Amino acid sequence: MDKSVCQAYEDEIQALEEEIRLLTEKYEEIRQESTFFSDEEILKSIKSFQRETQGETKGHESPSDLKAQLESLETELSFFTTLTGFQFTSHSKKTMEKTRDRTVQKHRLSGKCHSLSFQLEFQLLEMQNNEKVSAVVSDLSIIMDSRENSDVSKFVSSTEERGSLLTFFRSLSTYAEWHEHRRRTFLHFK
User: Fold this and answer.
1) pTM above 0.70, yes or no
2) What is the CATH number of the domain that holds 182?
3) What are phi and psi of 163, to 5 degrees?
4) What is the pLDDT of residues 10-55, one digit of tens each?
5) Under a CB-based contact definition with an 8 Å cutoff, are residues 179 and 155 in contact?
6) DSSP state of 114
7) Which of 4, 41, 92, 169 has the smallest number of Cβ neighbours within 10 A?
8) Sign, CA torsion 81/86/87/91
9) How high is the pLDDT of residue 34?
């Protein structure tokens, strides 16, 4: 057999093995998340889902209503993307711990703000006392391309230390907007 054909088969085998590994990890995550729920909670969710789907099939919402609602949501998303400059490309959430009054979730988020890419990873601890819910961000990790400006790396480091997502998004929005203006200005003079 030709070496190039063998190499192509080996590459395909490696790609399939990697896909199997990723799917196995995803399955384990889903299985782990489902173990945090009691049988009673799972049955309630199933019954609720069945009622929702039966309501849809009985014609409570026609396909044209759903299409109009989808178009409205897309319009709102487009508006908010234009307003803030943020465009999220991926988000994943993994429940690490769940009790009656405490939930710990690990989030991974990536996207762009104007022309600057970013990735976030953090843990969110939600605690419920009576009717009050409080959330605390910990283990914040921010990845950005800061080769252009050392101030960005200083900002990222201080934001990670404080664990303030709100500060990160507000500051990144402003910085990225002005970064885009500077970039366009320099292109104009070239």
Assistant:
1) no
2) 3.10.450
3) 70, 35
4) 888 888 898 888 888 887 777 666 555 556 666 777 777 777 666 5
5) no
6) T
7) 4
8) negative
9) 56
The two structure tokens encoding residue 151: 């101030």
Which residues, 6 or more positions from 114, have their beta carbon under 8 angstroms from its beta carbon? Answer: 85, 176, 177, 179, 180
Residue 114 tokens read as 């104007």
| Full domain range(s) for residue 21 | 1-36
**Into how many domains does the chain fold?**
2
| 129's tokens | 């006392």
How far apart are the C-alpha atoms of 74 and 51, rounded to whole Å?
26
Give the Cβ contact number of residue 63 at 10 Å.
9
108 bridge partner residues: 92, 121
The first and second tokens of residue 142, run together, are: 């921010």
Q: Does 114 map to a domain? A: yes
86 has pLDDT over 90: no
Helix (H, G, I), strand (E, B) or coil at 148: coil
Compute the distance between CA of residue 144 and CA of residue 118 in angstroms, rounded to an integer. Answer: 5
**SS3 assignment, position 62:** coil
Asked if 32 and 80 sit in the same domain, the reply is no
Question: Distance (Å, rounded) from C-alpha 157 to C-alpha 149?
Answer: 13
Question: What integer pLDDT is reported at residue 82 of this predicted model?
Answer: 81
Q: Given 3-state DSSP classes, what are the helix, strand and coil percentages for the chain, each rounded to the nearest 5? A: 60, 25, 15
